[in-house]
Design goal:
Length: 367
Amino acid sequence: MRRLVTLDNPIRRALVGSGVLAVPLVVFAVVVALLLGPAEQQVAINFFISLIAVVGFGIYSGNSGIMTFGHVAFMGIAAYAGSLLTMSPAIKAQALPNLIPALRDVQVPFVPALVGALVVVAALAFAFGFPLSRLSAAATPIATLAMLMITYVVLVGAADITRGSQTFYGVPPITDLTVAVVFALLAIVVARLFRESVLGLRIRASREDELAARSMGVDVANLRLVAWILSALVVGVAGMLLGHNLTAFSPKQFYLTLQFALVAMLVVGGPTTVTGAAGGAFLIALLMESARRVEGLVSGLTLGPIRIEQFFGLQEIALGLVILAVMYRRREGLFGRLEVDEVLVRWWHGRPTVSRPPRDGDSGPSP
């Protein structure tokens, strides 16, 4: 009983923690499916896709302590690569007349297409990640932003494959609430298993003190590369699901706006834990949806002699204010530096359940 309560086994701790975190997510999904309409279900699907992306984002940034600005590139790559495999040949012949026959004439089910898309993501993640993992923590964020810009330009320029800046359409609508929830739970398990593994422990050690970790024989560069590739794969799953939820998209949907939203989710919830990533995804998704509805209510409103034809920008303003408030009041994020299962174990033993805020000398992710 004591071993269960203390959760001293890393795998058990990861699985129990994933299970505890899964309970409210499944309850939320069931409530939405049974009690709410199609519009609310679509919002929930978007939330679970964002959760997958943020959890994947945190596998690298949360464990390494290096904030990046390029993970959305892998979402775009997976969305386009996977969609090319699931679209019908007839639609591809119409939308992409110059597509090579090897891609134009093939159509596979969702899961094989996902595997194919992730193979492409893994190859590009290695190509980008090998030099990135050798850069300093200060240089990596700028380099990843450059990676995102390069990917965006390539997606726009490869018009024969992606339709360029025009809308890429004809993607089958496969992602529903059940699919999104299942992949979200799998992403949480993968992230927790990596965090509690020896590799996760070592890369977190380099986050706290890189020089000390290197002196103990930790291969920081290769560990960061492994975390980077795994992170890209999970984020790629989110991109694949998003593409098959939207069914029509363009490169601009996988660019700066989405990237900054993911950064906000990770920072607000807490970059060092999977619980923080999931919690931040929920809070920011709720904030953005509320702001969007307020924009809709205010647009067209008449206040005396003043008529507001279109009210926009509230989502971005709210997002910025929340980030500033969290960074000012609680730099470790709203959910702190402890996983939900660690909080429960501390509560069980009567110990404090609030983690110590990082001191000025502490290292960690910073936006």
